[in-house]
Design goal:
The strands form 4 sheets. The chain has a 7-stranded mixed beta sheet with strand order 10-9-8-11-14-16-15, with helices on both faces. By secondary structure, it is an alpha/beta fold. It folds into 2 domains: 77 residues, Immunoglobulin-like (Sandwich), CATH 2.60.40.1180; 189 residues, 3-Layer(aba) Sandwich (Rossmann fold). The relative contact order is 0.12. The protein has 7 helices and 16 strands.
């Protein structure tokens, strides 16, 4: 059977209608302030829908009353395992595929094999893309379930070399230990959440802690070879330019080279749904 793909069918009224392989879903889309293009009857064909609650979680509603078993799609040059979560996520973010392409494109400019670090790495799309391009990858996420999900994704892509080191740990503790060990990397990818809690319950907010985290990341980058940073987020209050200015302030190799923009997904009509922001650079 041919591999199934991802398609954004429509968006509007802060929701989106997606075809994810053989399953059609309605999920929140906070930036979709416009009305939908499709008729309500098209939206009613969804197999499931997710409604978010005030605590950040939410509830899935499924036709027939039962959630589907996990399934597989092809997206961004990767085979990915799809599994609806209690937060309305599916195990991948469609808007990140352009960043995966960018990571693959860096291979000719970097020493081989490049040593790369993926922080807040989720289920591993960026890690797989970097390994696909020949890099040695350190994949770090605090959630053990995400580490296992990443390994499942790797198993679905047998042509990708097994050059990924999977680590379940707190990002800040790990980065601190790497600094003490004198570790170095040719590239760092990070997609930090808006906020999080440390092992002792301490609260970390992106607007308060991102600059310090980037400063520590700078100390982990090789100084005498080309290197890169890819920073993305979905947090209100940040803009593409603000991320780029932060990179330029922290990383000398980024000055004049940082590029930034909105991550997005195109609907079948051609209309584009914004879905987060990024900034990135490759030093000379």
């Amino acid at each position: 059977m041919p591999m199934q793909h991802y398609l954004l069918i429509d968006s509007g009224h802060r929701r989106k209608l997606e075809q994810i392989g053989h399953i059609r879903l309605v999920r929140p889309a906070p930036n979709a302030f416009w009305p939908p293009l499709c008729d309500a009857s098209e939206w009613d064909t969804a197999d499931g829908s997710f409604e978010r609650n005030s605590s950040g979680g939410g509830t899935w509603t499924w036709k027939g009353g039962r959630a589907p078993e996990p399934w597989t799609i092809s997206h961004g040059g990767l085979s990915l395992l799809i599994r609806p979560t209690n937060f309305g996520h599916l195990g991948f973010f469609a808007e990140q595929s352009a960043n995966w392409d960018w990571l693959r494109s860096l291979a000719p400019a970097l020493p081989q094999p490049a040593r790369t670090l993926n922080l807040f790495a989720y289920s591993g799309g960026a890690s797989l893309a970097m390994a696909q391009a020949g890099a040695q990858v350190c994949h770090l996420d605090a959630a053990k379930g995400m580490i296992e999900w990443g390994k499942e994704n790797l198993a679905l892509n047998p042509k990708i070399p097994e050059t990924i080191r999977w680590i379940a740990d707190d990002v800040f503790k790990f980065v601190g230990r790497e600094l003490k060990r004198g570790a170095s990397y040719h590239g760092i990818v990070l997609d930090p959440p808006s906020f999080g809690r440390g092992a002792q319950g301490q609260v970390w907010k992106l607007e308060d802690g991102l600059l310090d985290l980037l400063s520590d990341c700078r100390k982990l980058l090789v100084a005498d070879a080309p290197h890169f940073v890819l920073l993305s987020c979905h947090s209100p209050g940040f803009s593409p330019l603000s991320l780029a200015r932060m990179l330029e302030a922290v990383f000398p190799g980024s000055r004049g080279l940082a590029e930034s923009g909105e991550m997005s997904v195109a609907e079948s009509s051609g209309r584009v749904l914004p879905a987060g922001i990024y900034a990135r650079f490759l030093s000379k």
